[in-house]
Write a structure and sequence with these properties.
alpha/beta, seven-stranded mixed sheet, 21 helices, 30% helix, 22% strand, binds adenosine-5'-monophosphate-propyl ester
Length: 679
Amino acid sequence: MADQERLEVSEAEVAVHWQEEDYYYPPVEFIAQANMTDAGIYERFSLENFPECFKEYADLLDWYQYWHTTLDTSDAPCWKWFVGGKINACYNCVDRHLPRYRNKAALIFVPEPEEEPHVAITYQELYVRVNEVAALLRDFVGLKTGDRVTIHMPMVPELPIMMLACARLGVIHSVVFAGFSGQACGERIADSGSHILVTMDGYYRNGQLLDHKVKADEALKAAQELGQTVDKVLVWRRHRGQYASQAPMVEGRDYFMDDLLANYGGQRVEPVKMPAEAPLFLMYTSGTTGKPKAAQHSTGGYLSYVAGTSKYVQDIHPEDVYWCMADIGWITGHSYIVYGPLAIAATSVLYEGVPTYPDAGRPWRIAERLNVNIFHTAPTAIRMLRKVGPEEPKKYNYQFKHMTTVGEPIEPEVWKWYYEVVGKGKAVIVDTWWQTETGGFLCSTMPALHPMKPGSTGPGVPGIHPVIYDEEGNEIPAGSGKAGNICIRNPWPGAFQTIWGDRDRYVATYYAKYCKNKESKDWRDWPYLTGDAAMQAADGYYRILGRIDDVINVAGHRLGTKELESACLLVPEVAEASVVPRVDELRGRVPDVYISLKPGYAPSQEIKDAVVKSIEDTIGKIARPKNVYIVPDMPKTRSGKIMRRVLAALSNNQQDVGDVTTLVNPEVVEEIRQMVQGS
Ligand code: PRX
């Protein structure tokens, strides 16, 4: 840990030398139409008014029954929100909009092949399809409230339909990003205890119809090895009636959804009245150990929080056309493509493919054609589009009023291109900082209330009260120029409830560090540790510097270094592996892999290729390393700890690798340097 910290301190120092940026002000046209123009919201959501203030968000929803306790802290730090309340998430995202918005598009699906027509799904159509799927899940599959279902699906409308059908029944969904391998999916099936896997035959990516069903067989095998049997595999087909996968359908186990649904036409299912604190879904994220961990999100609290932030931070009105270019397989897609926007009757766009297919003008053509006016993406996509098509946005006649950046820090230069070129100087930008665990935004400017500052997220959003602590738990004040561990003082309804099945790990990872009294039932004693380093400028805006633990943030997605290293060690010749983040112009950070070989093996390209393949197979292509270096030995401390900090410095072209006096083998550093940086 100490080694890692030193690396981070140097990053923090770099950040401290960044210049303060000038403010950009929201246009008057934006302010005139904004959902939230009352600065009094911060007073209403002050700590004095906590926790009752969050009724304002919960009241955006329809409840079967109101709660008797807004925040129950009796099982601290597992917070329970709106206890006694009864609600259904699907009802709130679909049924209740029918009287006013029956014929308005809820989802617009944009297939990757440009010649394939867009599909607009109205709220009425969504209602019909979700009900039919819910009937099938209940009557054919036999799913009951509280069961878990793993959904390994790409960006097609059947994915949110599946999620909403689960929510209608109170079934807990666990969506696994389609880019993840069968192995990774299988581990998540086992951890969540799912008996059902939902998948798809194939989908389009970069001009190719990928075979996806093949991963289901690998996933089931991996799950079985971990002791979890899957009874049924439900297979959607990308093109109705045509099967696009090479993988055989297994009799009595695998079923085509389009075939099954023929028996459920016109069926309706009453939404199940769920307790507010019942889990709505699991979302896996990386931690510092190899074992995947699932953030368990609640129904009432989560939905209130994403509805409130979609309305006030995303500024979504029912008349808007909103496009979040994330994948539903990540938390951003759950909160800000599906649940938040649909809870407030938005029209939400779903794009199947990659932003640069077939060329870098694609996103702007989609925006022009659909009249998208709210756009949401990540720095990694912005960097990519800026690199391959810096002038493209100018060619298209669209106009955003609002844009979001999320997932990693954005360089001020990139922010300015986003603002000037993509936003044509007329859109507000919110830089929203949050995490899988937090359900929704933690920090951001409020778009009509605050000026923007490139590279900084902003203050805590209403009801979120951040604080930066040093290692000893002293508060680091705003404007001090010092970085520290950013924490949140108070619970909020969007926060995850626990790590699925591992309360101890939940407490240890997120609350133990700064808890003053482990017996306390008072939320004030339990600051939430985000794991990010940050500093606060004198104006109250936070600047996020990155993770303080061993997680690499690649293209806005967190990958555990431990998971990557374990994958390397699956290659028989590999003795030791160490994975470090390399700064990458496009993807933020990419993994660089260092391996040493078991005695008797000589370095070879085959071994390097095997390492890359193993990482892709166990985690997915997203984790593909930039380089694999076969080193004679790892730089190690006397206690045998690999000094990642030294390798990270070498990967990032630093001349000074810092203090190497604690190394048992300092001479190896020079050898590795030659290999990585040349002489
Ligand atoms: O380090 C922070 C970074 O992404 C981490 C959370 O990743 P994940 O759980 O995958 O959720 C991604 C979608 C919210 C954070 O701990 N991060 C997220 N948003 C920002 C950010 N870093 C800087 N600025 C942001 N706006």
